[in-house]
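Researcher: Quick sanity check before group meeting.
Model: Go ahead. Protein one:
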Amino acid sequence: MKKLVLALAVILIAGLSSASANDPVYVNKRVSAAFQSDFTHAKNVSWVESPKYVMAQFSMNNKIMFAYYNHDGSFIGVIHNILTTDLPDNLRHTIKKGYGSYWVSELFRMDTDLESSYYIRLENGTESIVLSSDGAEGWKIFSVTNSSGKESASL
């Protein structure tokens, strides 16, 4: 399960999960009903379907969110972008202290039924680092890519 959630995070980070407005996706009733039950106040819902999951992109409480479901309608997780000020203090301080020469290009929180995780992409012009954290034990390197696009480290 954790590998699937991490894979979804990578997909979001890579920007592959954006829906095409020209190609509407019709999801099965189980997924649609589960989504409507979980996110009753969702607006502007669009769907992306893959062989492994179904993703709903929507807005709620002035936030763009991404909810992931299995094809049987079971909830996988929800992802939404956050600000660095929304990070737990220990994670925010580690970024300031250890990555002061980098800028944050992407930051999001992922919530599943079991846990919440954070993912951050940091860049400095020569490399891009993606870190992950469950919030309690600090950051772990998820991947490092140099400016030529070559991945030099990953989990």
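Researcher: Fine. The other one?
Model: Protein two, sequence then structure:
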Amino acid sequence: MKITSRLLTPILATALLTLAACSGGQRTSRPPVPPPADPPALIGHIVFIELASPSDFHEILHDADWMLGTIPTVSTFAAGKHLDTGRSTVRGDYDLAIYQGFENEADLNMYVVHSSHVDFVNKWKPRLKALRVYDMLDWPTTRYGVGPR
């Protein structure tokens, strides 16, 4: 029997619906995704800056790169402007975002008192309209051998 494309479409649709119905909507259990070979830093320090004068953007970005990104205890560094992806749930009420990763709390504490960080804060704090700082502890269950519940 020769199957034509006119017959093939309804057959495939029926097969897919049958398979979906058989699954019962239950999720299958799978092992957790293993951590990457080079896992991200354990502590994330995220700063959102709103400048009093947005024309200062390139200067503060340069200072962030050279004054903060070169501090020895910083293991990961990124700084940049908001990326408009058109999603209404993504906040864009800042001029510069800075992300730094630290391997442990001691490294973060050394960063806070490092002369380059202190100089950066002293230079830029008077020129800011707003500042939000968040510290985050990365706690992936796969890193500590805890599987899904």
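Researcher: One line on it for the slide.
Model: The radius of gyration is 25 Å.
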